[in-house]
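Can't paste images in this forum, so I'm doing it all in text. The chain is below; anyone willing to post the predicted structure tokens underneath?
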Amino acid sequence: MTILTHVFIIMLMLISANLLLRTKENLGYDSYSEIAYLCLGKSSLYALNLLMVICISGIVCLYMTLFASISMSLVKHLHLNPSFNYIINNKAFYVLALSIFLLPYMFKKHVTELKIASYLLIVGILSIIIAFITQIL
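Text version of the structure:
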């Protein structure tokens, strides 16, 4: 039953995405906020943008929590000074460190300015694939 529910939800999402893209193309608007304003009025702008903020914030929180968990699992075997060991075994430390590291990227105005980050992402993904293959073999 749950598989049918998932298939049904996926089909609804595909249909609604198709309708949204066709509407955007037919009306000639640049953003989904303009379509929402046309269909539902001014309150839809606030609702749509609030929903986007909540979703993006949730994704960022999940990413930072995942990064903290992975980092903690990598350094838990290090035997360091007990006071420093308390710091590196704290999720808040990694979340804060990642936030400070990503802060300059948040203020980029153009996507082309993220070229170095794209290269680092490719290197990171390739290293994960290599690590995964070496564990299998």
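Residues 42-75 form the longest helix (34 residues). The chain has a mean pLDDT of 84.
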